[in-house]
Amino acid sequence: MIDLTHFWNAADHDPVLAQQLAEMYIDTVQQTAAQVDDALNNDDRHMICELVHRLKGSTAILGFSQQQSTLDELYQYSKSATMIELTSMPHDIQTLLSPILDRLRREFTE
Questions:
Q1: 9 lies in a domain?
Q2: What are the average pLDDT values for consecutive 10-residue runs of the chain, which has 110 residues?
Q3: CATH assignment of the domain containing 47
Q4: Does 6 map to a domain?
Q5: Alpha-carbon gap, residue 77 to 57, rounded angstroms
Q6: What's the CA gap between 97 and 68, in Å, rounded?
Q7: What is the pLDDT of residue 9?
Q8: How many CB atoms lie within 10 A of CB 47?
Q9: Residue 75 DSSP one-character state
Q10: Is residue 1 part of a domain?
């Protein structure tokens, strides 16, 4: 179950702002997964680390602390894992954050 208490606080309990934040976060996650995939194809570890770090921050700001902790683990892992070991990273990000994305879509975009 995804708790939206902190998300609503981040949106200052404004439904319009909450919808905008939800849409931006959904887009950010999808774009980040695609960018990580591109970085993998270019053997760009630095970019992978940077992208995961940014996503971790966005996730924390919106109050999804459990997923933020896991993203921190992925970030730490991305600094030392081989590029081959990182090939599942885009899928891992989507899998980790899909419960949040599903909940935000149900609440704000349908």
A1: no
A2: 93 97 97 96 97 96 94 96 94 95 92
A3: 1.20.120
A4: no
A5: 16
A6: 10
A7: 96
A8: 15
A9: H
A10: no
Residue listed under structure tokens 């989507």: 94
Please report whether residue 79 resides in a domain: yes
Domain of residue 60: give its range.
Answer: 14-109
Residue 29's contacts (CB-CB under 8 Å, 6 or more residues apart) are 55, 93, 94, 97, 100, 101
Rounded CA separation 81/91 (Å)? 16
Q: How many domains would you assign to the chain? A: 1
pLDDT value of residue 1: 78
Q: Spell out the residues 6+ positions from residue 87 whose beta carbon is closer than 8 angstroms to its own.
A: 40
> How many helices (H) and strands (E) would you count in the chain?
5, 0
One-letter amino acid at 29 equals: V
Q: Give the up-direction half-sphere exposure of residue 98: CA atoms within 13 A in the CB hemisphere.
A: 7
Token readout for 20 is: 């905008």
